[in-house]
Amino acid sequence: MAGGSRLFGPMPVVAEAATSDTDLEGLARPLLEALATIGDLDSTYLTVFDWDVCEQEVRYLHSRGQIEIADRSRLPLAAAVSRQSLPGVTRSPAGMTQSHADSEVAKQVGLATYVSVPIVLAGHELWGMICGASRLAQPEVSGRVITVMEQFAEIIAEHVSRGRAAATERRAETAEAALNSRGRFLAQAEHQLKTPLTVLRGALEVLQQRWEVLGDAEREQWFGAMKRSADTLGADIDALLAEARADLQSRELVAAEVDVAVAAATMSQAFDALTDRHVVHSEVEGGLRAWVDPTALAQVLGHLLDNAVKFSPAGGLVRVTGHSTPGWTEVSVIDQGLGLPQGIDVFQPFQRGGADLMAAPGVGLGLHIVRGLVDASGGSVTTRTNAGGGSTFTVRLPSGRASSG
Fold it and tell me: What is the pLDDT of residue 92?
């Protein structure tokens, strides 16, 4: 505000998850505007307490006078303030004899008129304050204004409490879904490991009991069966460990702005060098960016390219393309392979399709890992069969920080 007096400068935002939605802003701003008019105050604002760092944040502001307070400003709490210390109504700082949640700041900047009302949640938890201030002196803020502020505080407290309850319910539902999904995964993993283990045990039993009566050729056959089963078991275990590592990684992603063209070119060149049966190249133009964990993006592209090469005939072309849409970046891996199996969700664990697909190496976890990483990145992955044969896998990722929130 030109010519205004700045109370607090902008600081990094540490928002409380239960109240960071646009619903709270849509509720709070009209209340603050109404309060400024009713109380004839230069500025009205909502502060939220961050008890972990003993600070308060000016979450939302309405200003119409000589005081400028920036949205998302942060300032320390008074030492005596705690989550259960309820300050009551604070007003007219010149006459105050003790510090409350934010009255000390009002005194320090020399405000002539100041008023605040606590926002208290269930269990007498002090969540924040509704505040108003003016540079010029006024008669003591009237009881009518205080009553309005207390009513507004109750409205906001009820909204925050409902938001917390809804968030708790969503977390419980998410946790239950994750447990169910993990249970199904473990059941499928048990089935996947059981067959080679059964063959291995059976072959050992036969060799132990019938060693003397078996000829050399028969022994070689049983040893061969054991080796194949051991190799299969080892590959399955490696794949399961890779999935477990990806599952842990998906909980610890650190998003950053990534040059998708560079990432796609790097992975395409690597796979093109590894295969002498296919041509792999990237057609992603420079300047395409996504907001994603760089390691996760590399893994996603790696699994998709490996899948494309694995299921494409010799001489097939594998292309990586990309383009942007409002708020999103899309990257596609296009192959000329066998296409998608009918009636099967290829992103489910251990899905391999028909006999032609079953002949390819692997246990069917690569695409499952892709979906987990992309979901954790705030994106989505889809697939379709191409009209001329082969398949296209498209990953949709946030193109910036705002999209990923």
Answer: 60
**Quick one: which of 251, 246, 336, 335 has its CA closest to 298?**
246
Rounded to the nearest angstrom, the gap between the alpha carbon of residue 318 and the centroid of all alpha carbons in its chain is 30
Structure tokens at 338: 């066998």
SS3 151: helix
Cβ–Cβ < 8 Å for 307, 366: yes
- Separation between Cα atoms, residue 129 and residue 127, nearest integer Å: 7
Helices (H) and strands (E) in the chain, counts: 9, 15
Between CA 353 and CA 364 the distance in angstroms is: 9
pLDDT score, position 246: 63
Lookup: tokens for 92: 């007219």
Separation between Cα atoms, residue 35 and residue 144, nearest integer Å: 11
Query: What is the C-alpha R_g of the chain?
Result: 31
Mean pLDDT by 10 residues, the chain (405 residues): 37 38 82 90 86 83 68 72 67 50 54 82 85 76 87 92 82 68 63 77 86 88 87 75 63 85 93 86 91 90 89 85 92 88 74 48 70 89 88 91 49
**pLDDT of the residue at 10:** 36
Query: Does residue 310 sit in helix, strand or coil?
Result: helix
Please report the domains of the chain, with CATH numbers, ordered by start residue.
Answer: 5-169 (3.30.450.40), 254-405 (3.30.565.10)
Task: Give the pLDDT score at 76.
Answer: 77
Which residues, in sequence order, are CB contacts of 91 under 8 Å at separation 6+?
Answer: 114, 115, 116, 140, 141, 146
**CB atoms inside a 10 Å sphere around CB 61:** 22
Q: Are 370 and 250 in contact (CB under 8 A)?
A: no
Cβ atoms within 10 Å of 315's Cβ, excluding its own? 9
Q: Which residue from 146, 43, 147, 48 is spatially nearest to 90, judged by alpha carbons?
A: 146
pLDDT at residue number 172: 76
| Contacts for 366 with CB less than 8 Å, ≥ 6 apart | 303, 306, 307
How far is the CA of 74 from the CAs of 85, 100, 157, in angstroms? Answer: 20, 16, 21
Tokens of residue 260, six digits:
């998708």
